[in-house]
Design a protein that fits this description.
Elements lengths: L1 E4 L2 H14 L5 E6 L5 H11 L14 E4 L6 E5 L6 H6 L2 H6 L3 E5 L13 E7 L6 E6 L4
Parallel strand pairs: 2-5, 2-6, 4-5
Antiparallel strand pairs: 1-7, 3-4, 6-7
Length: 141
Amino acid sequence: MEFVTNSPEQTEQLGQRLGTVLSAGAVVAFTGDLGAGKTAFTRGLAGGLGIPGQVTSPTFTIVNEYEGGRLPLFHFDMYRLSCSDELFDIGWEDYLARGGVCAVEWSEIVDDALDSDCIRVDIRRGDGDSVRRITITGIEL
């Protein structure tokens, strides 16, 4: 499915829509350019899961954990990793076993470690500064 959003708020709203239908153990693999809106979309995911508070990019911490909703959210940023082996070094399998939702920015870096049934979200810039073309595969909205 392809969607077009015209503001960061609309990108968050689409993320929220996805968050409402996710189940325990879901992995959402993001691709897209720097600044395309992956974190904005993840803020929406958190809202759809009922998680209160602010969601920020985990660029320097690799993973941020958010609880308090119907499912926990584990927000990964793989930008600083060089390969999927490093993903396992930070406890990837433990996060999967915790029954939450794993949102993975820069998933292409660790793609060989992700299951083929994960949900894929590709976010690209459109024709205007705030326009985003978002393709979601692996789930129906």
